[in-house]
Design brief:
The protein is built from seven helices and eight strands; from the N terminus they run E-H-E-H-E-E-E-H-E-H-E-H-E-H-H. The protein is of the alpha/beta class.
Amino acid sequence: MAFELAVLTGLPAEAAVLPPSMRSACARCDTARARVLAAELLAGGAEGLVSFGLAGGLSAGAGAGTLVLALAVVTKKGRQACWAEWTNTLAEQLPHARLGVVAAVDGIVASVAEKRLLADRTGAVAVDMESGAVAEVCAAAGKPFIVLRVVADPLHRAIPKAALAMMNGGMAGLAGSLLAAPSQVPELLRLAAEARRALKVLAAAAPALATLRR
């Protein structure tokens, strides 16, 4: 039976850049759903998981578009090391990737102050909402995992309230937030441009996942 690696993403746009043959699931920025999906992927035959997608930057040197290859994931329950063999394989193929710790959270870290506090507490270079589920579910099942992420909003960039409103309430939420505070528009456009840049880097790195074996 052929080895199968499955991928967990947070957004449909992240899943869209994966190789078509790679099995994946999208948590849609819901950490409870991420845990369920990670367990289902393993139950469905996956021999290992990848947390794949965009991330928030927690290091001054990790600007938008920085590819991050995690050495470990820090959750509320502690620290889980990524599978070293896979990490080393990807590091050889993606020499521009930054190696470091990734922090896992249950909600969006929106402000610069929140990012700095999380960076100080964890020593992480990036943060996302799915890596914790992947790390904990794989640890419980005795399965390997890795994390490949790209920074979309760097440390110095706060996420505008309009972007959060869109995630919670769709276009109606976005429109309402912008009507209440139209001064958000330039920052929202800047964030969108950085996210597009990050997705291009993610798409370029995605084919490397197909080379992983156990």
